Amino acid sequence: MSLTTAQILDLAPDASSRKAGQDQAKPQKWAGLGRAGTVIWGEIKGSGASPYRTVADLAGPASKCTCPSRKFPCKHALGLMLVDAAAPVTEAEPPDWATAWMKGRESRVAAAETRAKEPAKPVDERAQAKRRQAREDRVAASLDELDLWLRDLMRRGLAAARSEPYAFWDRMAGRLVDGQAPGLARRVRALPGLIAAAPQAGAPRPEAALGLGLGRLALLLRAARRLDALSPEQAAGVRAALGYPVTAEEMAARPDQTDTWAVLAHAVEDEDRLTARSVWLVGRTSGTLAQVIDYGTAGSPLPPAPAAGQDFSGALAFQPGDPPLRAVFREGRAGPAEQAVLPGAASIAAARDVFAEVLARAPWCERWPVRLANVRLGRLATAASGGKTAFAAGDETGSLALKADPRLPSLLAVAAGRPVDLFGLYDGYGLHPLALVTEGRLYAMPAQGAQPVLLQVA
User: Fold this and answer.
1) Could you give the C-alpha distances from 175 to 8, 139, 447, in angstroms and in order?
2) Do 259 and 231 fall into the same domain?
3) What are the pLDDT digits (tens) for 222-231?
């Protein structure tokens, strides 16, 4: 198998790596190119005395390079895969260093499977309960402090809140982090951005956005004080929103959901000093949506994940929560997509109903993935867009404003006025498009970059 150029570029950890990888994608720079099945390898001259040795498994995708870069995949791995995308590397006998990596990869997978089958080590339940209670106490104290802070904020009014400097919000967020409630801290840190945002189509006015953000925060705070009155899945969703991690023991008890999962898109966001990557999937048989989130740092890169436009054939396990969305990969393998379709796509009216149902179950939800069928993309009327160029998706049941994005004109060019199926994140005001399907082709917004790219041709 080979990945497309777009799929490979979507694996780049940042824009500079994407550009550098393209600079390395020249066959004349490489020596000893070869392939064994889905594994390709080659050597490339670097700054050192010896050439760098690079190997990649396109089925992972996964890669290894002897260069000192701490990014994953590095520019050389990207370049090697791009060379293969342009003209598939020919089959050859792998050199010793490539064989060693392949065997090591196989042994690591086997070791992981063995560890998964081993009986769990006994835990000190007493110490575990003590740690759990200590965190519960810290979080409870954080909730009390946040409640007092919100009440004081409301007494002074939203106009006074808009004049507060960023340090005002950051101090409260820092106290929530200290109180082990990072989910609340993230929401507080996002509030000044809502105030500063310029009015645009697909977004509420700053005053309304701030009020909405504070309202969601207050609802989450109220729910966190009533966990005993909620169902187990609802309580798990509230705890996840507060920032409680799901333990390995909890995930081990979760059932597998096996399907052929179409990988629709990747999205990368920076959260403090972390890089968060969301992989969006939909089950071809079940129509179930899933979001797999991984975190990476400079010293701990993001793990390999199926590329947008591929299929992941295997099992996911969904974390507890209501409604369920976040999942983790279980056993399975990535490969070429069966066909470019968007299972479960429906009308705009149906998408609004789905979002309303989600809010009824989790009113602090900020956005939710939706699938639209047979919509047309076009410009909003001048009056509706406030005199600025803005775009929307529409069908006979209504329309949704598209979130402002410099890549939208290119996405409209791809649609070319034809009805398309559209996937994106909806927040009740506008849609942030992530992928569309038209004429048997899947297009997706790159995780980072300026243009939409072709990811799959059925």
Assistant:
1) 41, 11, 32
2) no
3) 999 999 999 9
